[in-house]
Amino acid sequence: MTSRRKVVVTGFEPFGEHTVNSSWVAVQELKRLGLGDDVDLHVCEVPVEYQAVQSLLPSLWEEHQPELVIHVGVSGLATTLTLEQCGHNKGYKRLDNCRFCPPSQCCMDEGPDCIRSTLDMDQVCRTVNGGNAGITVSVSKDAGRYLCDYTYYTSLYLGQGRSAFIHVPPLGKPYSSQELGRGLQAVIQEMLKQLKEDHSEEQKKDYCNH
Questions:
Q1: pLDDT digit string, tens, across residues 11-27
Q2: Contact 107, 92 (CB under 8 A)
Q3: Which domains are seen in the chain, by residue range?
Q4: What does UniProt list as catalytic (predicted)?
């Protein structure tokens, strides 16, 4: 019997003008849809607070030992599902929901400036856009130096790159909660497929080297 794959997906609580945060609405819709019979999906709402992220993320990785953690956030500028390729360590000057910002303006004092996801976001983007998910996907290398970027960098650091970040537009601009949920499902299933193929390639290499 094959073991089930563990995936954690998070969305954010409301903040600023986003009194309903489409990221958490979309994640709840994804939870309803699921990721397939072989995937254990755990979802979590993340506070828009730097210090909460610093305590919550290590416990998520520790408790669930997931194959992949995906964070979903809202961007008022987004009109597509936007896949972020990397997270950044420095430049956090905006105050969070508690009116706090890190004194050092960075995530990890000893961390590298930028960490890339092990996933090839361009490949995920091409595949999903070539399918019939009914949404458009694009790729970005700047997650915005706020809680989204901060969360992503922290997760990439903890998971050694086995993390992804997806920005979604506000509800109705242009997608409904159902469309966002289906879009997340298509994107994450493609990411899991990519991880499986990468793992198979590694096993083949190990076999050939013996």
A1: 999 998 899 999 999 99
A2: yes
A3: 5-208 (3.40.630.20)
A4: 148
